[in-house]
């Protein structure tokens, strides 16, 4: 996942994904006022509905991802 903001800083988050049937996609999240909640909702819905992870577990996993997002937003490459 790549997070981009208005000062053209690129931060990379490495995720391990299960390889399943279907197409592979890349998603870009722009640095908006609701970025953290958007990432949380995206991963919760994706894990629950697309990867068939139980809803309770998908909420926990999405919460862990959500908690890491601010660290990557603050990271600057100089």
Provide an overview of this structure:
It is a single chain. The chain has 78 residues and is α+β, with helices and mostly antiparallel strands. The protein has one domain (2-74). It is built from 2 helices and 3 strands, in the order E-E-E-H-H. Strands 2-1-3 form a 3-stranded mixed sheet, covered by helices on one side. Strand 1 (2-4) and strand 2 form a beta hairpin. Helix 1 packs antiparallel against helix 2 (55-74). It is globular, with a radius of gyration of 13 Å. The mean pLDDT is 77.
At a glance:
46% of the residues lie in helices and 12% in strands. By secondary structure, it is of the alpha+beta class.
Quickly give the structural class. Answer: alpha+beta
Strand order of the largest sheet: 2-1-3
Which spans have pLDDT < 50 for at least 5 consecutive residues?
none
Q: In angstroms, what is the radius of gyration?
A: 13 Å
Straight-line distance between termini: 20 Å
Beta-strand content bin: 5-15%
Instruction: Estimate the mean pLDDT confidence.
Output: 77
């Amino acid at each position: 996942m790549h997070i981009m903001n208005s000062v053209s800083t690129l931060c990379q988050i490495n995720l391990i994904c299960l390889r399943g049937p279907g197409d592979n996609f890349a998603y870009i999240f722009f640095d908006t006022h609701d970025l953290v909640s958007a990432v949380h909702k995206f991963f919760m819905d994706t894990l629950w509905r697309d990867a068939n992870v139980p809803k309770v577990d998908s909420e926990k996993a999405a919460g862990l991802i959500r908690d890491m997002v601010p660290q990557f937003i603050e990271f600057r490459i100089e």
